[in-house]
């Protein structure tokens, strides 16, 4: 069986090989849940329910229904188990942000008939490379068919910052999804990659040329080879150490966090 990777797994290695070792090799338990990831998961759960019900029954859940789903997902993790790094923020701030993301998206796209939802949280898989092959897996937030017949891969972000143009041009995650999707589509099918930055009510769309997708495939194959060749898993310290689940196990990360205060409110 080829080794299994994902975009997030490769990103972990690229951000910090030591964190990769702790998470995927030693499989150390995580002592807390990061509040940013928890807020994002709650928003995703509500949007998944919205489109799944619309697809299944034709009915559009009310905003009140979705707010209930959001709250239910939020309460799955006790407040005391949430890790909040940014100084000046508390759990209620992040819950309000999650609600803002959901409500803004709902009002922007209601009644959700601009396209046809084909699947939500759809699992995709593709095997890349030969020596050795690597199995890449992931989950598309939503797969839709646009009125012009194009296939659209939608991804929801609750990030507190907007991407630069070059970030979107180099995006690996949705390109991997597209590579997997195209294995089942006609050669001339049009596929669009769509990002929704919910905090800012912004939508970005890209159409990748075949050569761009091929380049992503080569880059992923090279990234997998780097992971498989690694033996020492050095720590790569930086501001992300404040959010690392394993800083208590990592001497370099622990020193970095002790010497530099966590980010806080502007000004």
Molecular structure report:
It is a single chain. The termini are far apart. The protein has nine helices and eight strands. It has 267 residues and is an alpha/beta fold. Strand 4 (116-128) and strand 5 form a beta hairpin. The strands form two sheets. Strands 1, 4, 5, 6, 7 and 8 form a six-stranded mixed beta sheet that branches. The protein has a two-stranded parallel ribbon with strand order 2-3. The longest helix has 23 residues, at 35-57. The chain is globular. The model has no long low-confidence stretch (mean pLDDT 94). It has helices at 7-15, 17-25, 35-57, 63-74, 91-109, 165-169, 173-182, 210-229, 251-259; strands at residues 4-5, 33-34, 82-83, 116-128, 134-145, 151-157, 191-197, 202-206.
**Tally of strands:** 8
Indicate the low-confidence ranges by residue numbers: none
Biggest sheet record: 6 strands, mixed
Strand content: 15-25%
Question: Which structural class should the secondary elements be placed in?
Answer: alpha/beta
**Which percent bin holds the helix content?**
40-55%
Order of helices and strands: EHHEHHEHEEEHHEEHH
How far from one another are the termini?
Answer: 52 Å
Mean pLDDT: 94
Number of helices: 9
Rounded to an integer in angstroms, the radius of gyration calculated over CA atoms is 20 Å
Q: Based on Cα principal axes, name the global outline.
A: globular
How are the SSEs placed, and which strands pair?
Elements: E1 4-5, H1 7-15, H2 17-25, E2 33-34, H3 35-57, H4 63-74, E3 82-83, H5 91-109, E4 116-128, E5 134-145, E6 151-157, H6 165-169, H7 173-182, E7 191-197, E8 202-206, H8 210-229, H9 251-259
Helix pairs in contact: 1-2, 3-4, 3-5, 4-5
């Amino acid at each position: 069986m080829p080794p299994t990777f994902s975009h997030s797994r490769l990103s972990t290695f690229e951000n910090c090989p030591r964190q990769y070792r702790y998470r995927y090799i030693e499989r150390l338990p995580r002592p807390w849940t990061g509040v940013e990831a928890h807020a994002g998961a709650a928003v995703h759960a509500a949007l998944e329910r919205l489109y799944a019900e619309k697809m299944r029954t034709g009915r559009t859940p009310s905003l009140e229904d979705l707010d209930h789903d959001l709250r239910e997902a939020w309460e799955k993790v006790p407040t005391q188990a949430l890790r909040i790094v940014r100084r000046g923020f508390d759990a209620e701030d992040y819950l309000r942000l999650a609600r803002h993301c959901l409500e803004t998206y709902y009002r922007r796209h209601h009644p959700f008939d601009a396209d046809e939802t084909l699947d939500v949280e759809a699992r995709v898989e593709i095997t890349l490379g030969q020596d050795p092959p690597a199995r890449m897996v992931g989950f598309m937030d939503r797969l839709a068919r646009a009125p012009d017949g194009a296939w659209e891969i939608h991804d929801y972000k609750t990030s507190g910052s907007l991407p630069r143009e070059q970030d979107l041009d180099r995006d690996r995650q949705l390109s991997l999804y597209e590579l997997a999707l195209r294995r089942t589509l006609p050669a001339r099918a049009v596929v669009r990659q769509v990002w929704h930055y919910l905090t800012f009510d912004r939508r970005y769309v890209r159409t990748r040329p075949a050569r761009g997708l091929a380049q992503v495939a080569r880059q992923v194959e090279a990234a997998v080879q780097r992971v498989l060749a690694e033996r020492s898993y050095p720590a790569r310290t930086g501001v992300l150490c404040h959010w690392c689940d394993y800083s208590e196990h990592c001497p370099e990360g622990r020193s970095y966090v002790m010497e530099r205060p966590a980010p806080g409110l502007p000004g």
